[in-house]
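The material for today's practical consists of a large collection of protein records. An example says more than a description, so a record of this kind follows:
***
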Amino acid sequence: MKIHFYKYQGTGNDFVIIDNRNWRITDLPVEKVKLLCDRKFGIGADGLMLLNPKTGYDFEMKYYNSDGRESSMCGNGGRCMIRFAYDIGIHKSNYHFIAVDGEHEGEIDGNIVNLKMKDVNGVTEVDGDYILNTGSPHYVKMVSDVMDYDVYHKGMEIRYSSEFAKDYGINVNFVEDKGHDEIAVRTYERGVEDETLSCGTGVTASALVSYHNETGYNEVRVITKGGKLSVKYDRIDDNNYKNIWLCGPAEKVFEGEVEMKP
């Protein structure tokens, strides 16, 4: 059957999106998702999302990594999904949707899409590095000259380490403190098995731990290889962060049709 698809990106983190409000797609095998996300034989993307109907919500966001597996929350994916919902006629001043990690809110302000992330109720420090879950599990390591850092090999080493292998691995972020509430972040993403130009949940995790000792309201500007984001949040204490918002651009790239072979 032919499927109409849309391609969206948020700071270079790109996604295939399918409007599934008619429940035309009830099953997406791993190999089909992998093919659609393949940059040589398919459409090409870091992930694939279905916009499903859901009683009590504006929509449900169902997310798959480019390896074909249904995965944990994707922050930039969530922001792209909000923009997509608006573009297909779901016009709201405030969006309320459900994803794999629970309920989310969203807003559109011009070309900026704001996504409310889940509260964070635990940060573990290990030898000066940090582990936390912002909808997806993340490892955060502070480094110097992050744009010259070997993210691919160093990220793979941590992602596949015995400590995390049993839980499908972990996303790995390398962060440089630029001063004046600004950081630069590069992320090795599990499920993509490579560095992505931007990772929303990773940017969020990196922003929280970069100003780990500053109680109260914070706004951190974040530089990624794909563009600029900001993270706003209230730090309650070392292990509690609330009212977390991931903010940045998200836009449609193109749309088309693809044959989905049985």
